[in-house]
Amino acid sequence: MTEVPPAAGAPAPLWERDEEIAAVVEALDVLCADRSSSGGLLVFRGEAGLGKTALLAETRRLAEERGCTVWSARGGETLRSVPFNVVRRLLQPALVSLLPEEAREYLGDWYDIAGPALGIADPGGRRADPQGVCDGLVAAVRRLARREWPLVLLVDDAHWADQETLRWLAAFAERLHDLSVLVVVARRPGEVTGDSARHLDAVAAAAARPETTLSAFTPDATAGLTRATVGPHADAPFCREVWTVTGGNPYETVELLAKVQDSELEPAESSAGELRALNRSARGGGLVARLEGLGIDATRFAWAAAVLGTGISVNLVARLTTMRPGQALRCAGSLCTARILTAPDPAGARAGDGDLEFVHPLIATAVYNSIPDALRTAMHGIAAQIVTDSGRGAAAASRHLLQVHPDDDWELVEQLREAAREHLAVGAPDAARRCLERALREPPRPDVHARLLYELGCATLLTAPARTIGQLRTALAMPGLDGPARVDAVFRLSQALLHNDQLEQAVRTVEAEAARHEEGPARLRLRAVQYMWEGVHAGEAPAPRRSERLAGLARTCTGRDNSERALLILRGFDAMTHGENAEEVVEACDRALVNGRLAPGLGWTDTEWGVELLMMLGSSYAYADRLDRAENLFAEALRTYTTAGWSGGHLALAHAFLGLAFRRQGRLRDAETVLRESLRLAERVGRGLPLYWSAMCGLVDTLLARGHVREAWTTAEQYGFAPPYPSTIVLPDTRSVRGRLLLAVGRTEDGVNELEAAEKAAAVRGGHNPVLAPWAVDLAGALAAQDPARAARLAADARRRAERFGTDTAIGEALRCAARLATGRRKVDLAARAVTYLEASPCQYEHAAARIEYGLAAGSTGELDRGLALARSCGADGLARRAKQGLAALEGGLS
């Protein structure tokens, strides 16, 4: 490496950065070539002081030379607890340039979802879904990017970005392929763990080129920089010692050479021994000593600036330190002269940034850590009061409140509780959790303690169910949580146990609490919740006479309140799973509605009962041949969650159950589309959850119905569709679908074993609905050749249960099964009767299959033609092939 800098006048940290700058230039050339260019992502990684910030500054310069719009932001070590801090600052140039009506127009439906997180809209009345807010931010940036092309986004010190920003950045990076934006990220290695580290890894993985690790200066580059700074007469031993004491760290090298100039040290071998002492004064304890040398007022100013972290104005620091304005202004000048603070780079400055910033994050960290502990916490307390007095709200003050020393301050507890509510309203549950956990350390008053634990449990329900269990159990064991709040806490605890795959404990928890109450609304709600969790439990036999007790309770319900409506839904679902008369199923479900619609307080985004109850309602309609009602319910769920910005598990379930309705109707293409989207969303929430199984099982079932056997098998292998199964009921029935899949790929013995396991599971649960768990039909077909007597018994049992249930679909399917086992005229008659029933059924796929089977049995080209048309309209490619083969055989025979 020569001693020549990379370009005339280039900043010192850019020496030996030719490859990195070339990568930036190449990415900018691609970006600016055409509006249709795909997005780019560069990630630069390096230890502190290796020139990451300088590289981003050079990226800005190169981008602006090409006419690009450049937005930038950086993380801060003391600002990681501020949700959406970095993404807000990143988008601030666009947001401040838009009038409110323009912002609403550009963000469209996402305005009410992403707007509160960005600070440009008031949050709604209920807590926001974090995944929905993340998706809203992605959509917001995508829309703004189309307006601002060519756009470059620079994120510095990403390792210190708040977790909410990192979640957005990871999601945005994955979707850059169809958006013309260049994103450049700089970070240190290590520094973060947990979800933040996972998000940063996802960002790096999304980059087209590997993450670039910056290296320290070589001795040659250090010598070149030394001579360029202090003069060409610097001798080789002196230059070598500069490299030795700094380790080639660009920041330390630049600071050391500045000290050499300030001290007028002769750059010769005879002076090289003084370099180590000079280097110590530029960092760590030496920096602190240098700061103290400027005087107590300048030190207090620097401390206040470090506490603020961002938005460092002279006036704000003066308020925090109680200095007079003139005194504060003089301190700012001294600190700028000493290269501790500086005015922001005009190219990157924006409104609201404040008047000052630290020259380098290393300096900010050293200054912050040098503040005596007691004084630092006191300064955070004063800063929190200043923020509160300015009217910015408890959430804005919370990052300072988190640092205040616990002191039995009930007002602080209330501020933190309010901050938590504000964080939840914008979709930042982790920030809410930090506030509530800090409030517990204050500690709260005894009459507030249990409610605080309850609020903490509600805040962590979706993100940390295991932690929620302990918090809510503790709250329930303490005095102070009574009435409706206690009942709701028990419900939340049971939900957390359910999400943590502890369904049996969820049932027992609700049962025990119900026993504590006398007859009334609270007891009725708890009993309904108990029946709900028992109803979705797939792991063991129900309690003796459970269905009988539930039916008796439901008979007394008029649907006058939501507890009674919940019991009616549960009764309908229970009757449906047991294969009782479908008309009674529908009658119970209809009584739970108000004028055919969900009652107030029982909607998809209402939290008093949970989504499981409404999924039971829609499923009961779906399997009782009321598919129009099922589709309307699940489509309403999809619309409601999309509008509200709930794009996590709730939206995944809505897609999964709408896919179930489409699959039952025979709209197989539509079913496959929404089920694939459900599986995509479910993977973001986490594999292994019941909602993940619903999406995966539904997709495999639909692919088998379409005749795409190889794709169904590949999907099953890719997503882990195999035992062990979850402890909750999954629709469609997992073992029945898995057994059918194994038969389809030729693994007959394994398929029979799986279907026999389905038979046993259904017997334990009393699940005698032959449509819900159609194991008998497939098992009879698999055993027809090797054990015809057993196959006949299975078919007869399926027909008996189908007639008990009474839907056209159930009876038609049972007749199809019987026809496949029969021969001669009986086969034709049974196939004809199956067509009669399934023609009246809303399930068009089964109707198509029955037509084709009847056409083959009767040798009727007309029936095969009608079956072929139905199969094509359903998207059932396998059935269509079978019909065409039958037609070809008949036509060949006739000729």
UniProtKB/TrEMBL annotation:
The keyword Nucleotide-binding applies. Residues 15-184 form the Orc1-like AAA ATPase domain. Residues 493-520 form a coiled coil. Keywords: ATP-binding, Coiled coil, Nucleotide-binding. Gene3D superfamilies: Tetratricopeptide repeat domain. SMART domains: TPR. Pfam families: AAA_16. This is AAA family ATPase. It comes from Streptomyces cinereospinus.
